[in-house]
Amino acid sequence: MTSELGSVLRGWRNRVSPAAVGMPGGAGRRTSGLRREELATLAGLSVDYIVRLEQGRARAPSAPVLGSLARALRLTHDERDHLYRVAGAVVPTDRDLPRHITPSLQRNVDRLSDTPASVYSAAWDIVAWNPLWAALLGDPSTLAPRNRNLVRLLFAEGEAPIVRDAASRLVFARDIAADLRIAFGRYLDDSRLARLVDDLRSSNSEFAALRTETAVSRHVAERKTIASALVGTITLDCDVLTVPGSDLRLVIYTAEPGSADAGKLDVLRVAGLQTFATAAQAC
């Protein structure tokens, strides 16, 4: 079983070109697919762990690790299920909160290159993002996997680089808590969602208080001001679109054409992406 896991990981890694995931190809590559360090970067794992998985020396990878690998490798649902099986893990079912991105949805995110775009789960786990998103809001791959969650970051660490006054933050916190209540009611068997709610309820008094409220609603849109080290403060419209047939959310930031904020976004597109590309080449 373990040798099959290593075999499929190597095969899937070799079929994904760097260009397909927004990474520079470069000359002198021994493979047309992803290097181990590139897969590690995309999945938020260490290179050593990727090596141990492929060589059969790492056993029983967790469901979050397998989910990250499935997304990074652009696996279909059937391929993702096979990955879970050969790793000896329980295959996600319809009772589990969807976190897997299909290759077609990933391509849509990749092609939205002129605007910051990302994909979140119904529990507000960020599961995909494009380079402009990372340039504007920070690169989620630098966070530990459990911290790639908007709700956890909001209540445990704050919303930086989003700029809000106290009243606006309270409105947003209530909005997100009401949205999370929908996911919690729909996916009662999802252990990761239950752990998130239990962790925050026991460690954060604000979240615990909001859990006692009964509002239920979806968070769909708002205007946000972001403090960027490259372009200063920039105010953008943020829209949340639910993916048909799934509770995944496509989140997109846009600026009114011809506005000062649109000009700042153009600057960020050039300067920010150059910084991001340089960092990717150094990996």
TrEMBL record:
Residues 33-80 form the HTH cro/C1-type domain. PROSITE patterns: HTH_CROC1. SUPFAM superfamilies: lambda repressor-like DNA-binding domains (SSF47413). SMART domains: HTH_XRE. InterPro entries: Cro/C1-type_HTH, Lambda_DNA-bd_dom_sf, MLTR_LBD. This is XRE family transcriptional regulator. It comes from Cryobacterium breve.
